[in-house]
Structures are given as structure tokens and as C-alpha cells.
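A.,

Following up on our hallway conversation. C-alpha cells first:
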């Protein structure tokens, strides 16, 4: 029950109404017996929003597009890893000081390492946006040999150079020569479900393929990877872990990851089952009166 003791958390982003973070956090808070609630805030003025977190004593926020980098100058401190990545997806209100963290990289790495020992592995990372950057950092930390490719090659070339990785121009020719392929682009994300960032023929059965897109959960890339006999990891694995780690940062308590995944699966199924309401033609009203 929400009362005068309830601790407030939330997600700040724009747009944010599609966010699954309230599903992750409210479900976990309830099961953990915490008197806490989590809301989605569609933010228009970031600086004012950050002041509001402090002013209202909000316990912490998740940070999403387009604020993960932009929020840094408004914070009081930065966790070392978030500073190296240059992006924050978690803010914790630590006795009035707002400290930035990044759980995207650790969420992604946790999902990968559950299935593969990354030591010495060759990884092809697709994308050069915020998520790709965080994952690239994590892969580097694990000592992987990483190749980065992106639709806009100048961005992946810059990321590769910054992190001392190799650059692989797209589109790929022939089979992917890697143990692990990670899609950290938006290719395949609803409503563009028909897209895949790589042709099916590029995948071979020895590979592990992770797609961080979670709408839909089974992207075209993952379906084709399964057909080729690859081991696959869907976007929910990273999503659940990055959220669980946020709760640990805020509360010092570890939520049940399996239950978070169940909540997410239910929410994603409901979302995909929602009928699209056809919109009729908008009739112009007769402004001169009469009908
Ligand atoms: P950004 O906007 O920062 O980056 C988007 C990236 O996707 C860029 O590299 C962009 O290439 C590429 N891209 C976009 N559309 C296409 C396309 N049609 N074909 C090929 N490449 C494309 O977004 P994020 O890095 O934050 O997020 C990327 C994806 O990861 C999103 O789908 C997001 O939902 C998902 N995500 C999942 C998380 C999880 O926990 N599972 C966590 C965070 C993100 P270019 O540079 O050429 O524009």
C-alpha cells in the first residue's frame, strides 16, 4: 500500500511510455516486501528533472534514451565504470548526492556469461549507440577480441579506435568469423520485425548469438540463428539483469531474477497480443455550424 513512508523511484526518458522498467521494479519491490513504488517520468527539461529528484528525495532513477550521456554534468558523482563508458543508466540518491552508475554493460555481460565463457573469445558487436558502447566496454574488460560494425561506419570506426578494437565494415560478406555475435542495434525491433542486421547464411552453428532487442523477444535474427543451430540469448536476459542490478544499487538487496523474467515475459506477451485499433478517417467538422 502506498502511504507516507513509501520510497519513490522511477525512470526518466523521452519517450518513456513504452518502458518495461515499471513492470520490473514494481513487481520486484512488492515481492521483496519493500514499501516502494516506481513511476515513468517523461522528461522535457533534464536539468529541472534532476533537481526534482534531489528536491523531492526520490530514491533513485533509471535513465533511458536520450539522457544517458546528457545527465552526467548534472550529477554529483560518477561510479568509475560509468565514467569510463561515458553513460549512466542508473542514478542513486545517496544521502542527497546523486551518483551515476551503469548496469547496461554488466547486465549484458551477465546474460552472455551464463551461456559462454568469454575468455579469449572473438566477438562481433553490431552497433555504435549507447548500448553498444556499454557492451563494448564490458567485452574489453573480459579480454575478448572484439570487432565492431555499424550501419553508419564512421561511428563504429570511432568506437573501435577509442577502445582499441577492430572495425568491421557492414554489410558482412560471407560467414561471420566469430564465436559470439551481439546485436546492439535497433534492427529487428518492432515495428520493423522483418529486419535482421546480418544475413542468415552468415551464421554458423558454433556461434552464440545474442540480440538485445526485446520487442519482439524472438527477433528475426534469433529465429534464423536457431535455424542455423546457434545458441541464442534474447534481449530479456539483459533487460532483467540491468534492472535487478539497479535494485541492488538502490536497496542493497538482490531481487529474484527468475521472477523478474516471468513478469517481463507476461508483459511482453500482453503487449504483442494487444489488438491494434484501426483508426477511422478523421472527419472535418463543419465550422460554419449545422451538421
Ligand atoms: P541508440 O539510439 O543509441 O543506437 C542505435 C543503434 O542502432 C545505432 O548503432 C544505429 O545505427 C543502429 N540502428 C538503428 N536502426 C537500425 C537499422 N534499421 N538497421 C541497422 N542499424 C540500426 O540506441 P541504444 O544503443 O540505446 O539501443 C539500441 C537497441 O538496444 C534498441 O533496440 C534498444 O531497445 C535495445 N536495448 C536493449 C536493452 C536491454 O536491456 N535488452 C538495453 C538498452 C537498449 P546508426 O549509428 O547508423 O544510426
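Then the amino acids I'd put at each of the 291 positions:
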Amino acid at each position: 500500500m502506498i502511504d507516507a513512508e513509501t520510497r519513490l523511484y522511477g525512470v526518466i526518458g523521452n519517450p518513456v511510455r513504452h518502458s518495461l522498467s515499471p513492470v520490473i521494479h514494481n513487481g520486484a519491490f512488492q515481492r521483496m516486501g519493500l514499501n516502494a513504488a516506481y513511476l515513468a517520468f517523461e522528461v522535457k527539461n533534464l536539468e529541472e528533472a534532476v533537481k526534482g529528484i534531489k528536491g523531492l528525495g526520490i530514491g533513485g532513477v533509471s535513465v533511458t534514451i536520450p539522457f544517458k550521456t546528457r545527465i552526467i554534468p548534472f550529477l554529483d558523482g560518477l561510479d568509475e565504470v560509468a565514467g569510463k563508458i561515458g553513460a549512466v543508466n542508473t542514478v542513486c540518491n545517496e544521502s542527497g548526492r546523486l551518483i551515476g552508475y551503469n548496469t547496461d554493460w554488466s547486465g549484458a555481460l551477465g546474460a552472455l556469461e551464463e551461456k559462454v565463457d568469454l575468455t579469449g573469445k572473438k566477438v562481433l558487436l553490431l552497433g555504435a549507440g549507447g548500448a553498444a558502447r556499454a557492451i563494448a566496454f564490458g567485452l574489453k574488460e573480459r579480454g575478448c577480441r572484439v570487432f565492431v560494425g555499424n550501419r553508419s561506419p564512421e561511428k563504429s570506426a570511432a568506437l573501435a579506435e577509442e577502445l582499441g578494437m577492430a572495425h568491421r565494415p557492414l554489410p558482412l560478406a560471407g560467414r561471420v568469423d566469430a564465436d559470439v555475435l551481439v546485436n546492439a542495434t535497433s534492427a529487428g525491433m518492432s515495428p520493423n520485425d522483418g529486419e535482421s542486421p546480418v544475413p542468415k547464411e552468415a551464421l554458423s552453428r558454433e556461434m552464440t548469438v545474442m540480440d538485445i532487442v526485446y520487442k519482439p523477444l524472438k527477433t528475426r535474427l534469433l529465429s534464423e540463428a536457431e535455424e542455423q543451430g546457434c545458441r541464442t540469448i534474447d534481449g530479456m536476459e539483459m533487460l532483467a539483469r540491468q534492472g535487478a542490478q539497479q535494485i541492488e544499487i538502490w536497496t542493497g538487496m538482490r531481487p529474484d531474477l527468475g521472477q523478474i523474467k516471468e513478469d517481463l515475459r507476461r508483459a511482453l506477451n500482453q503487449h504483442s497480443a494487444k489488438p491494434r485499433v484501426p483508426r477511422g478517417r478523421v472527419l472535418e467538422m463543419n465550422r460554419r455550424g449545422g451538421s
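The two ends are 50 Å apart (CA to CA). Curious whether your intuition agrees with the design.

B.
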